[in-house]
Specification:
Four copies of one chain form a homotetramer. Chain A is of the alpha+beta class. Chain A contains 17 helices and 14 strands. A six-stranded mixed sheet of chain A has the order 2-1-10-11-7-6, with no helix packed on it. The longest helix of chain A has 26 residues, at 310-335. Chains in contact: A-B, A-C, A-D, B-C, B-D, C-D. At the A-D interface, strand 7, strand 11, helix 10, helix 11 and helix 12 of A face strand 7, strand 11, helix 10, helix 11 and helix 12 of D.
């Protein structure tokens, strides 16, 4: 087994991968000014071996192994995994780091594939653990007209599909969107995005390929284009992901890397098996973000001298209730975990409720934060002002609140980054759409709920026997 | 130790207690047509010894004892207590039964009194367990002008107070309101309603007296005046509480029954110690009510043939999330319990969040239920119609939905009782005001939350060291 | 023309109508203890001729005519109609009185029928005005399984339908539900409940018949069964409607009373034409109810001494905003009225938004009211207590707040009637389901909104030409 | 009278004003790359003379005058002013343009000053109209610890104050924050920010000074630092404001420019008189923004092929109701206008309710928009991608939805700019804090509401005479 270092991880990214950024080919993702910070953020998934070995390093057959890659076999394993995900996210400023999503995919593959696909999945999972690889997961297809299924689209490539097959390989064409980490991962794991019907056989495909596979191009979004100054951008200058449009232009995949090959009946279960773990990941990696919202609200209220006002206390109470409800349900989802084919999965109803509360409350929570912070979020000074001693003295004088001016400005800038700038927008869109949309969580809650007890009780009370 | 039977419990209520109902003295509460159903409901707290001995009967020193009276000494004890409270409430149609509140008061007295008061509390608790008594708890004072404290009211009697004291007794005057069970309890336990200051010494009092103590009058509210027909009133015909204005007209209390005697600094802690347990009781006894709302929503949607409509599914999802969030937090509040002076108390933050979600969501949940059920809730037929065979055949024909007419009508009547009649109003007011108002829960969440972790994290990220 | 008096109206109800209440035939609706109060409430529609002649009496060709029956021909007419509806509802404690719904139906018939049906409608409308009749409108069919249309139901009678026709008459069978006023109206106007397709010809029917027509039976719901004591029930003891299941057991209708005879393409437009006016009625007759909620919240807060608390002020602000938004939109819907075939109709988008706000906010508004009022709503004394001088003195002492005990109790009883008793439940269900359900309003808003301006503006800004 | 052209307006800004941006003195605001777009946006207030003369040009004594400067003397004037504000904002992409705020201040000065101050205000207003000047309004003080009033702050300069006075002038020191337009206005009008007490005499000051007055420095916030590419930033590349920290370092103000000189009793009324007009401005200039939200939601739903899904229709309905409620109340606030010392003011209760609905619903509305749009908001391609033909063909293929890829991308970029980037954050913070915070609107609603009618009605119904 290997425990790679951040530098070893970085070295692995320097290959022939085809990454395009603002229309230009990127020679080295670890050196590109807009991509390097994301590589650094992801490298926390390796740095944590040293900083938190108790959580991040497992003993597998006497070999130290990254704990992310070890499938949970008990409720205690689920709890530890929850804590590990929270901790690495805490290092990453509340933004998902790297290995969570890949291991969610591996656990799903171990649970929901069969036959040769299952054997391939096991071999792949073993190699990932052995080599401590970085995985990206490409699940969401571009989808075209969402009122139509894969085979009904005008352009059949709008869902990734098998266009050819021979004895040793399949060839795939199409594009996945919103692929996090692809530009800074070693391997891209492809999962189906939804349940499929009989007509969708060619689209029922899952596999893994190295990031530098011929025919694969990663169009990285410049949305999170950052500014390196930490005065105005204390969060976004340090923490970011890369998201790509991941285009497979007749990519040949060796069969020993294929996990699902034209098995439409397994597509939905595999997609859901991933979701079970991935939403558990989501609710745990969001916990530091919850702390950021609550903590900055407390600090902002104090800085402005309004902490005792009735409406401020009411807003703080709502924030706390929201954050701690998500935290509580995240904890309980592990405690309610159960064995499923040898892998423990967190309780889906509880996981989805945690995610529901997070997503449902995120808008109101950040609105409260904006309310407590004030207009300074969008009218404050810049780093050039702060670095000019003459201007700084003016700012220190006039931005003093119930705390010194610098403290008030730095908290306001933190809140501005978190709620009013592109980083805030990124988090806001994630809250609604990442790891399953809010609508998807609602659907899943309805599916997972067993109404037997409630219905029987009412029938009895209503005299219906 | 004694495990009393329902009949023994009833027999104990036939004493000289002074109960007034609609301006008239009640001779025997077990025989009065409006009071007897409440006695029957409360008797479930004794019937459960037989129906669910595993939950309801504890072994204390080899003696079978009502499990309600045994203070929790572990997390497992808390969980069992939660299940016991849920079960007896399930027998009681989602309405609190009897012994919960009394034991909440006993545990609070054991935790928050001192000296002679503590000794008296211990002796009293031992006797209650030994004799399996029924306790009511009189906590909420009438309060007068709520912007003023006890000693500042125009009429000093608007909070219960000590008006005299001699070597053997104190004499108290005043009135408690919203006293549940008082007319059908053996003993009335009096607790202070709030924190008190130095000027409030005379009002800082706690004690227990038998229900037939001279000077004590129980003015029972006729709000829940019921109709015994189970067709129109499937719930309220069977389940009800008695609430009283509980007037102490210079009642003499022997000192060995006094738990707090002019100790204003202990008033607040005692009030809160009660609340800790009482809200745990609340969130557990509400669980069957949650099932009633969810179960009847499912049945009503099916009966009307609308279960597949998008807005119906959205409403069911909200109902489920609401109900199961409360259930989850109730469960977790026990799992997070901790030792406090030898008694395990459920985690207050989690308890108050559970209560918050219950209260906050109750209105919307029942509104959804009303929405799914339709106008039939208020335009349906009466028991006289149903009992007339000719009319019944018309009703069966025309009230058929996706299920037979009788089924649809019975579910609609159940929902009508639960949401649109006085029983529904009773539950609605309880949701906001019982076991601490919604505002009180919010206050308590803010108090119980420790912001250290969140604030330190934000300070670090914001560059404030 | 006639302006009937309340007594003349009452006299007209003493005929052979077949009214069934709790399984028994009612001999005289004006004399039945549970029905007479509803007759008295409806009689306000006649008493207003004397109390408010400026609003309630119109001059039609030199003849004084009940203003309800005069179709609006201008924006000013719409505004006056709004004020008239508000005023008669004010007399009726915020509950709809009588003539509004009938005139809504007449205006709809004048707009949406054609040919012989139109002629019959005009003749009928003229007679109603001339004789100042009381009309009930039977629109909502019992509907059976709501996922199926009229012709697809297992029992074809679950929507009212034509079962026979000859030269002079049609014969109809089926049942309408939620029919307000039927037992105390002179005539029953039948309207279709929804749009219909080709297969639904037999169900596309509209007509009017006298309440005592053979084959017609009115099964009156006992839901609002009242208690005449005004201490506990200040509202419901005085104001109520009768709602019936209205069964047509092969009722023969002369053809000159038929407005729609197997014209499915006109069923939807006629139903909507009624709704246009009927929701305008709704938002105007609700205005006194809004005042009741806001006014009692103000009084309750003052009585309890909490009017200055931050959360109380926040709740009052929400209540005011809710009530005054509905009032504003109601006013504006008349100001935005437009000519439609000679009759002015209020602006449908504005009307439906007013109704939306009313329905959407009703639950939260009454929840705030309950919150401000306190537990006294369900634990207060009864009329028997109040009438016993000895008990009354206790109540006066102990229910004193920041106002005398009597005042606090009477306001609390008012709020209890309005929110926690069956009257409150009745209002709550009305808020969601009457005059079109909340879901129906939402549908109508989406239909009535013209997105042209907004879409063109965005296309332009987004560079889409 | 003068009607200045955009170029004349620009020329007027080239003076000795002291503007600091990112720590550096700006030589010419019309030439600075980050400031020039804001100047261009503001110039729309002059361009509208030509593009919409019917709305924007008034005849005053035979002289064409910018209609902004003409005080409303009738309800029709208020309606026209509303339409003018909406139109100029429509040109400005839903962002306030320039003259609204200045004229709001002038009308307030005309209503709420007295004596010499009033005379100075009249003379100033006449000159502004005559010379068609651009005004900024500096109202919000930096405020320090908000729990303390002006005279109680540790540093007395935290509210702007008079530090010296002689026969001809006063000298002021302090800073105003969130001052929109200051860097590109001709004159800065200073208004008090709140009601003041006796101890606050020195802080009760109002005046106007040219932007290049000695001692005045404008520290412009770089928050809205823009990117000129219109592909990624269709809105923010064109429309922006400048906001400054406006520091008065012992600025000498001639007395004929002083409107309030140590008159604390007039400070509150003047602040509110401004707010009356300024919130009317707000609700009218937001109308195009409402269209942007609704229109882009419709387009996004169509582009994604989800327009018929139940949850999508529900969200569109909420958006429409929100937008059209604000529009309705804005219209009605003018229709309910009334004379107040010769100037018509819009109805404050209605204005504040419109603002309340806007602010209250803004978060949910944009959350719905984000929900409908999807993750593409934050993972989409950049302008460099789009401008590369090879990449563009990939984007066109894979971002096709129910509409061509370009259309979907352009709408998504519009929504991204509006909701997920700094421009969206700017709008979000404005929604809560600009033109009076949401809390301020709530306070004002409570103050403006007259509860007499509602309270009297309830007292009557409750039997309280």
């Amino acid at each position: 087994m290997t425990l790679r270092t951040p530098d070893e991880y970085r070295a692995g990214l320097r290959d022939g991968r085809r990454v395009v950024y603002q229309g230009e080919r990127v020679a080295d993702v670890t050196a590109h000014p807009q991509l390097a910070p994301a590589v650094g953020h992801s490298a926390l998934g390796y740095a944590i071996h040293d900083s938190h070995p108790d959580l991040a390093v497992a003993d597998v057959g006497g070999e130290p192994t990254s704990a992310f890659w070890v499938p949970p076999r008990s409720i205690d394993d689920l709890r530890r995994r929850g804590r590990l995900i929270e901790q690495v996210s805490r290092l990453g400023g509340g933004t998902i780091v790297l290995k969570e999503v890949g291991s969610d995919a591996l656990f799903a593959l171990l649970r929901a594939t069969a036959g040769q696909g299952r054997e391939n999945a096991e071999a792949f999972a073993a190699r990932v653990a052995r080599e401590d690889l970085a995985l990206a997961v490409a699940q969401t297809d571009v989808k075209g007209d969402r009122s139509l299924g894969p085979s009904a689209q005008k352009d059949p490539d709008l869902y990734l599909r098998i266009v050819d097959e021979d004895a040793d390989s399949i060839t795939v064409r199409g594009a996945k969107t919103h692929t996090s980490f692809s530009a800074n991962a070693d391997e891209i794991v492809v999962l189906p995005t939804r349940a499929m019907g009989r007509d969708d056989r060619d689209w029922a495909v899952s596999f893994a390929v190295p990031a530098d596979t011929p025919g694969l191009t990663l169009y990285v979004s410049p949305f999170s284009e950052g500014d390196p100054n930490t005065f105005e951008h204390p969060l976004s200058s340090r923490h970011k992901l890369l998201e790509s449009l991941t285009v497979f232009d007749d990519v040949r995949v060796p069969k020993d890397r294929v996990f699902l090959n034209r098995e439409p009946e397994r597509a939905g279960p595999l997609a859901l098996a991933f979701v079970d773990f991935h939403r558990f990941t989501a609710i745990n990696y969001k916990l530091p973000l919850l702390d950021m919202v609550v903590g900055s609200a407390v600090l902002m209220a104090e800085a402005n001298g309004i902490a005792k006002a009735g409406h401020v206390r009411a807003k703080l109470t709502e924030l706390i209730t929201w954050a701690e409800t998500v935290r509580s349900l995240a904890e309980l989802s592990a405690l309610r975990g159960a064995d499923d084919n040898g892998v423990f999965r967190p309780d889906p109803l509880t996981v989805n409720m945690a995610k529901y509360h997070f997503a449902h409350g995120y808008g109101a929570a950040t609105a409260h934060l904006v309310d407590l912070a004030g207009g300074l979020l969008i009218t404050g000074p810049g780093v050039g002002d702060w670095d000019n001693p003459e201007v700084r003295s003016v700012l220190e004088k006039y931005y003093a609140g119930a705390v010194p001016g610098e403290e008030r400005l730095r908290i306001a800038n933190f809140v501005s980054d978190l709620t009013a700038r592109a980083y805030g927008g990124y988090q806001r869109v994630l809250a609604t759409h990442a790891e399953g949309s809010f609508e998807a969580e609602k659907l899943q809650i309805l599916r997972e709920f067993d109404s037997t007890r409630a219905v029987a009780y009412v029938r009895d009370l209503a005299g219906l026997g």
